[in-house]
TrEMBL record:
<feature type="coiled-coil region">
    <location>
        <begin position="168"/>
        <end position="209"/>
    </location>
</feature>
<keyword id="KW-0698">rRNA processing</keyword>
<feature type="compositionally biased region" description="Acidic residues">
    <location>
        <begin position="76"/>
        <end position="88"/>
    </location>
</feature>
<feature type="region of interest" description="Disordered">
    <location>
        <begin position="55"/>
        <end position="126"/>
    </location>
</feature>
<keyword id="KW-0539">Nucleus</keyword>
<protein>
    <recommendedName>
        <fullName>rRNA biogenesis protein RRP36</fullName>
    </recommendedName>
</protein>
<dbReference type="GO" id="GO:0030686">
    <property type="term" value="C:90S preribosome"/>
</dbReference>
<dbReference type="Pfam" id="PF06102">
    <property type="entry name" value="RRP36"/>
</dbReference>
<comment type="function">
    <text>Component of the 90S pre-ribosome involved in the maturation of rRNAs. Required for early cleavages of the pre-RNAs in the 40S ribosomal subunit maturation pathway.</text>
</comment>
<feature type="compositionally biased region" description="Basic residues">
    <location>
        <begin position="94"/>
        <end position="106"/>
    </location>
</feature>
<comment type="subunit">
    <text>Associates with 90S and pre-40S pre-ribosomal particles.</text>
</comment>
<dbReference type="InterPro" id="IPR009292">
    <property type="entry name" value="RRP36"/>
</dbReference>
<keyword id="KW-0175">Coiled coil</keyword>
<keyword id="KW-0690">Ribosome biogenesis</keyword>
<dbReference type="GO" id="GO:0005730">
    <property type="term" value="C:nucleolus"/>
</dbReference>
<dbReference type="GO" id="GO:0000462">
    <property type="term" value="P:maturation of SSU-rRNA from tricistronic rRNA transcript (SSU-rRNA, 5.8S rRNA, LSU-rRNA)"/>
</dbReference>
<comment type="similarity">
    <text>Belongs to the RRP36 family.</text>
</comment>
Length: 286
C-alpha cells in the first residue's frame, strides 16, 4: 500500500508536455482511489478493537515505569535505614528557625545576614538613633554638638517667663469668670485648671533653679574676690548640704507672710509625725 507508483514512460508516444502531465495526474488519482478503497473495506468494530489495543499497550508501559520507580525508592529507603541503624549515617536533626549565630570571639565583628540591606547611617553610642529621634528635631540641642549649657539657654530664653505669667493670668481670669465657665463643660474646665497648675509649677521650678544658680555664683565671686585681696589663700567650695541650706534660707526670705506660715505649719507637722513614730517604736520595745 505504501509503494509509490511510477509512471511508465518507456513505451509512451506522447508528443507534447501537456500530454505527459495529464498522464501523470491520472495515474496519481487512480492510486489514491485504490488506497481509500482499502481503508473503507475495514469495519468499525475492527477499528475500535485496534484502538483499544493501542491504548492498553500505552497504559501498560506507564504502569511498568511507575512500579519500577517505586521499587527503586523502597530499596533506597531500606538501605538508608539499615545504614542508620548500623551507625554509618548520622540522623538528620530538624533545623531550628531563628537561631542566633554566636561569635567565636567577643572581639570579632558581628555577623549579619546578607539578605538584609545594611543601613547607610551608622549607629554611634551616645547618640540617638533614628528610631528614638522624633519628627521635630532642634539642632541647637543635638548631642552631636556636645552638652548643652543650660545656664546660657536660660539666659537667652528668659523673656519666655513674661509670656508664661501672662498666660497664667488669662487662665485665672477665665476660671473666675462665671459666664465663661457656663460655656465650657466640666471636663474643659478641669483641663484648663490642670494646665494652669502645671504651668505655675514649671515657672516656680525655673525660678528656684535661677535662685540656686545665683547663690552659688555669688559665693564663687566672693571667694575669688577674697583671694585677690589676700584674705584667703585657697577658695572654699560649698558642699551640697551647705548649698541646700543657703537656698532654703533665700527662699524663705523671698516668701510672703502667708507662704511662710504655710511652710512653717508643714514643717511642724512633719516634725510631730517623726516624734510620734519614735514614741510608738519605744512603746513596742518596752
Amino acid at each position: 500500500m505504501n509503494s509509490r507508483v511510477k509512471p511508465d514512460l518507456a513505451g509512451s508516444d506522447l508528443d507534447s508536455e501537456d500530454d505527459y502531465l495529464g498522464s501523470v495526474l491520472t495515474q496519481k488519482n487512480q492510486f489514491e482511489a485504490d488506497s481509500d478503497d482499502d481503508y473503507s473495506s475495514l469495519s468499525f468494530g475492527a477499528l475500535s478493537s485496534a484502538q483499544k489495543k493501542l491504548m492498553a499497550e500505552g497504559t501498560g508501559k506507564k504502569s511498568l515505569k511507575k512500579s519500577r520507580s517505586a521499587n527503586l525508592l523502597d530499596s533506597s529507603d531500606s538501605e538508608s535505614s539499615e545504614l542508620e541503624n548500623d551507625g554509618f549515617l548520622e540522623e538528620k536533626k530538624p533545623k531550628k528557625k531563628g537561631k542566633v549565630q554566636h561569635r567565636t570571639n567577643k572581639h570579632a565583628p558581628a555577623e549579619s545576614s546578607s539578605k538584609r540591606p545594611v543601613s547607610k547611617i551608622r549607629e554611634i553610642p551616645g547618640l540617638k538613633t533614628s528610631k528614638e529621634s522624633t519628627l521635630y528635631h532642634d539642632i541647637r540641642f543635638d548631642a552631636a554638638y556636645g552638652k548643652a549649657d543650660w545656664n546660657r539657654i536660660r539666659k537667652d530664653y528668659a523673656f519666655l517667663d513674661e509670656y508664661r505669667e501672662k498666660e497664667i493670668k488669662d487662665m485665672q481670669k477665665a476660671l473666675k469668670d462665671k459666664k465663661a465657665l457656663l460655656t465650657m463643660s466640666q471636663r474643659e474646665a478641669d483641663n484648663l485648671k490642670f494646665e494652669m497648675q502645671s504651668l505655675k509649677s514649671r515657672l516656680d521650678t525655673l525660678k528656684n533653679r535661677d535662685l540656686a544658680n545665683n547663690i552659688v555664683n555669688s559665693h564663687k565671686k566672693e571667694q575669688m574676690q577674697k583671694m585677690r585681696t589676700g584674705e584667703q589663700v585657697n577658695p572654699y567650695f560649698l558642699k551640697k548640704s551647705e548649698q541646700r541650706k543657703m537656698i532654703q534660707k533665700a527662699k524663705f526670705e523671698s516668701m510672703r507672710l502667708n507662704q511662710r506660715e504655710k511652710v512653717m505649719e508643714r514643717k511642724r507637722k512633719r516634725r510631730l509625725g517623726k516624734e510620734f513614730k519614735q514614741l510608738e517604736f519605744r512603746n513596742l520595745q518596752q
